[in-house]
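FAQ

Q: What does a record look like?
A: Structure on top, sequence underneath. For example:
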């Protein structure tokens, strides 16, 4: 669930009504920079935090034109925006995601975007778990 939320957040951050995302094949790399979870030894959390996660996916012209709220809606209704602003290449947002039995997680993001790339930082909190991460995405070419 957490990985899907980060990926969808990355997709959403790359688009705005002002400068839509370019359709095509995209790659994202997310690196958890810090993580705290109750009951997890600090050295284990540190190892988990240092491992980048990569994903490659295609964005259709229809998905690109739909904008960020529609893209994030593809998370099976697990996430919703509390606030969202994207203008002049900058983005800020706060979203809430259902995390199963763990309750609700809140994700605050900020960063930069263009039609072919983005770089965002996010802070996630929910219950006793907290993390911060960086997601960078870029368009690779056609699907």
């Amino acid at each position: 669930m957490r990985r899907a939320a980060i990926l969808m957040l990355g997709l959403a951050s790359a688009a705005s009504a002002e400068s839509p995302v370019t359709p095509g094949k995209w790659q994202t790399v997310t690196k958890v920079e810090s993580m705290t979870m109750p009951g997890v030894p600090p050295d284990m959390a540190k190892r988990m935090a240092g491992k980048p996660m990569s994903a490659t996916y295609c964005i259709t012209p229809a998905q690109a034109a739909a904008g960020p709220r529609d893209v994030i809606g593809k998370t099976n209704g697990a996430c919703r925006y509390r606030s969202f602003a994207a203008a002049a290449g900058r983005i800020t947002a706060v979203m809430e995601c259902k995390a199963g039995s763990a309750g609700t997680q809140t994700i605050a993001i900020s960063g930069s975007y263009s039609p072919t790339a983005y770089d965002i930082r996010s802070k996630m909190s929910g219950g006793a778990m907290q993390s911060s991460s960086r997601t960078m995405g870029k368009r690779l070419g056609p699907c």
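Q: Is there anything notable about this one?
A: The chain has one domain: 2-141.
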